[in-house]
Amino acid sequence: MRKGNSVTWRLMAFGLLGAAGLLAQEIPLTSVRVNFPPDSPVTLLSTSMGQSRATPRGSAVVLDLDMLLTLRNAGHNRIRAVTLRVISQEVALGGKASVAVPSLNVGPGEAFPLHVSLQLMRPGQMMGGPLVQVDLDGVLFQDLSFFGPDRLNSRRTMTAWEMEAQRDREYFRRILSQSGQEGLQRAMLASLARQAELPALDVRVSRGRATVSSAALPADRTEQFAFLDFPNAPIEPVNGWAQISGNEVSAPRISVRNQSSRPVKYVEIGWLVRDQSGRTYMAASLPSAESDLYLPPGKTTRVLQDTALKFTHRGEPVNIRGMTGFVNQVQFADGAVWVPNRQNLQDARLLGVMAPSPEEQRLSNLYRTQGINALIADLRKF
Hints:
Helix 1 (154-197) crosses helix 3 (358-370). With 382 residues, the chain is an alpha+beta fold. It has four helices and 22 strands.
């Protein structure tokens, strides 16, 4: 069935739930609808369901999606990122997810693949209609213009990715220009080594304060945040603190001031923790809690989170001895986004603890799999 750019595939002739005797076995998915608006700059060319399957589990159905969508850039601008919203049902937990693809470079008329690999839940009693619907949430273009309903705040996320991509591509291009092919190889090897050595910290997040009855844990204490200073940051952290008990940190509070000349609608604070041996880990990012934040120039507000975080490393609790914050992302009221520059990250020694940008990961993987010549050709594309 085709209507505009909405497509439904009837992949099998039998229904999902069928007879009672099938309730314990996997059943192929029966229908998926890709629903793009008529004026979408991205159109669907084909789909493959791969190993997608539905498995009844009690009163629900588990949908394991393994779809490969082939899309085409139907607009007049190069596409840098795409976000899709994937829904099996709107209300119950586990019925919605998203797929975002950064670091694209798709010209007008060009096709590109998008892999949807995720798991959703759907009540077993829901009958009729497609089992899964895929909607377009946003498309970001090379000039940072945007198309889409932006229900998932994908414009901010994809713009930040693109700002990081421009930053990191320029960094590696400059190395190539100043130090040649050998210098670029050294930079790529250093990037791959950092990625392999990133300290892995497992973080479990819960709402509010977790209840702990063990007398073996240290007593609660209030710990102040230290802050990294980025001279060009539009937001300045003023002060901050959180409650710490062993490997649990709860109720973080950070005050920030807008020191730019433009109103701000979103602030994200990067969060580092230090363990008892002095090792530093990237713990989390603390976003502004207010969805309607509006911070005028010169004004101060608090970034508040009613959360508790527990930290472990290789299954063992990480007792927190110190915390450091830094401005990780800012979105202005006009939609523009600020991210730290490469010098900020290098001076603060953040490159050794933060995961690299999606673009740096893509470039280093290109070097690892295809070699230096393929990397140089890619850096010269745009």
